[in-house]
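U., I forgot to send this yesterday:
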Amino acid sequence: MTEPTPVPDVAGGGSRTATVTSPPAARVGTTSESRTPAGTYGRHAAGGEHPVNGHAVAVGRPAHPASESRTADDVEAGIIALWHTYGESHEQALRDRLVLHYAPLVKYVAGRVGTGLPAHVDVADLIQSGIFGLVDAIEKFEPERGLKFETYAMQRIRGAILDDLRSQDWVPRSVRSRARDVERALERLGGRLQRTPTDRELAAELKIGLAELRELYAQLQLTSVVALDELIAAGRNAGGAGSSLAESLPDEGAEDPIATLVDQDSRRQLADAIAQLAERDRVVVTLYYFENLTLAEIGKVLGVTESRVCQLHTRAVLRLRTKLNEQLEA
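Result:
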């Protein structure tokens, strides 16, 4: 049984007439009026009675609420539609949405590439380089060819990371290639001979002369640069902490503590030896070495000739030398 029921017009200006069907008592369905204009269910859609112009109308619970998360098929369909739209317009906003969706690929590739790199290479720098590769892959990808984008993008991301690393490397690529050849030859000879191969054996394995091998060693020294912030293996303790390589480098301008102690001890011994000299000899040594007077000036102070002062100086030096030798032997 149906009857016309007046419903307020959402646009204003009077009312409109909606037909509400009274379902059987055993089964009640959801009417089209139980949704909000935005397409989501209203607060009365969970079940119970829905008032329409003062009349109570029973409304059933929906089988699939809109609040449920989307399935993987829905996400895949959305990405396909996004690729189709981006292929037609090439808008930057759509490209940015694709970059956000495929951003985990960059982190994965950067982690794989960074595994064999030195410790001072930051993975964040690799990710930054990989983002440029991902953007380039999105701009150049052609979905109509039927290829999988992830496979194509991983190659472009890896290539962008390697290109950035090569641009920062001060060693020529030819030298890097020769270094890898030497490493492989050493591994082969070590496994075959069960010992460290000699230079002559390594040169024969590389099919080069001994002089050329030594010249190659000089070139490979450029590849053996160590960062000052890296830890010394010998300085590491059980907790993993240790002194840095920079702390182990000698300071040419610093005072040597051993030399300072030896100098202080020598001064003390010399002062003791001078104190044991005769008074006149002690005066000659003090005026000559500490007051910087000449022998003639010392002679005027003592009232003797310059030759006599020279004799006193010689005798004082010999006595000091004897006393210092006695202290060293003791």
